[in-house]
């Protein structure tokens, strides 16, 4: 009897285990696809028979079913059957599709508007506004272009290469093409060859194209007039900085440099040993070992008579004669006779010069009494109004009249916030007059009035940067990466430097914001207005805040995603393991849920 009860008990245990396993097998966790509107309401749920879905564009969402691609509308109806091996999202009413190795294009009804006859069809090749107008097509090994809106081939696939990545500019209608190893230019809108395909290399700029017949002969082509303005007889052609219609030239077979203009006229003969292209006008030149300057018309406004010269800044240039330095204006007139031993530093019209062991600060703006003050201390110009000086081991700051604003106290020196370089296009105008200083290995900031607004807190000075007139980006680093923070121009720390990324110029409604993401996963994101007001503070609950899409920002909390609006109000609670950006008014979200298996 006991044995019978024992066997019955064992059979019951086995049956229960089998039932549990069966229930687990029948109760499968699946991922389902849903679309929500901007209120967070689910407006479309897709069946499990669809393997994958993407966001809506032009009212169509791409789906994958059994390895084939098609499209649905916003009701979930399959409007373009899953028949394509590959498909791209719709852009301006057209999608690229591929079937049996051939590529074409369809409209939102599924009609083939570009036949399936190409090996490649790509709109993402361009880096300019042409991207919105043309596709690159490839048939066999030849390339051409097709017009986006009309779907007409404007350039037949006859070229070995279309060099779309080389020197294209927004608004340009020109494209480099290659055939049989030679380069030329075509007009994209018409397909007309405007520069014959016979060149070894082309260097395309906005107005002109440098044409290389070989490594030694260069000509210049005007992209506007579509004419060769300088023939293929030069070994060097360089544009003068700030004057795109002026060129330094060196002609093949001649020794010497000259000047030419965009009409092809020689305005200065090839008689100079060198003509500088980097310093603008007046144009620095040398002849027989002496320096002078040319005007933009090629005239010698300063004959080549000086041992050395510096470039013009603020209407003045330093010149050296008989081993002494002085100053001239843009007409060549001597405004300060050569008398100084060294030109140490200059900032526009403020110079530090040395004479008889004394450092002299002088302003060329003044017509009289140009000497502001002299000192035996080490001096450095920080701005047009501030001078750094050193006494012993410490640096301080004074004004240009010698009045001490900050007594010597910094161990590591002072320098301009943004250095003036030869490349003035890279100079940060917002940083004009601001100064950084170093003390005991850390960096701080001084404003244009000579006031310390920031204690030495940061260990990377070179990446202080003005984001706008209100905010300064600060930088420090840990062992693996740079970390970013924010402070305002009064020196108040808005965000400690522990963030790894900025999303800049984010628009929400009528306002602009910076979104900063954390450097470590358990830190929180922060959103700051352009005026420095904290929009969503770091102490809030979100681990991540993404750039806005259609007015809403995706947020993450404990690994789940939701959305907030432009005021920071929660619109959709973080409850989805995946959520996309909004597109066409809808966002794609994933939901993990248990479903009973079916055998039917």
Structure commentary:
- This protein has 600 residues and is mainly β.
- Among the domains are: 307-376, Thrombin, subunit H (Beta Barrel), CATH 2.40.10; 377-458.
- It is built from one helix and 58 strands.
- A seven-stranded antiparallel β-sheet has the order 19-20-21-22-23-24-25, with no helix packed on it. A seven-stranded antiparallel β-sheet has the order 46-47-48-49-50-51-52, with no helix packed on it. The chain has a four-stranded antiparallel β-sheet with strand order 2-1-58-57.
- Strand 47 (471-477) and strand 48 form a beta hairpin.
- The radius of gyration is 34 Å and the shape is flat.
- The protein starts with a helix and ends with a strand.
- The relative contact order is 0.07.
- The model is unreliable at 125-131, 166-170 and 422-426 (pLDDT under 50).
Please summarize what this structure is:
By secondary structure, the protein is mainly beta. It has one helix and 58 strands. 4% of the residues lie in helices and 56% in strands.
Rounded to an integer in angstroms, the radius of gyration calculated over CA atoms is 34 Å
- Overall morphology: flat
Largest sheet: 7 strands, antiparallel
Structural class per helix/strand content?
mainly beta
* Unreliable spans: 125-131, 166-170, 422-426
Query: If strands are numbered along the chain, what order do they take across the biggest sheet?
Result: 19-20-21-22-23-24-25
> Can you give the mean pLDDT?
85
- The number of distinct helices, counting runs of at least 4 residues, comes to 1
Strand residue percentage:
over 45%
Number of strands: 58
Please state the oligomeric state of the protein chains shown.
single chain
Overall helicity:
under 10%
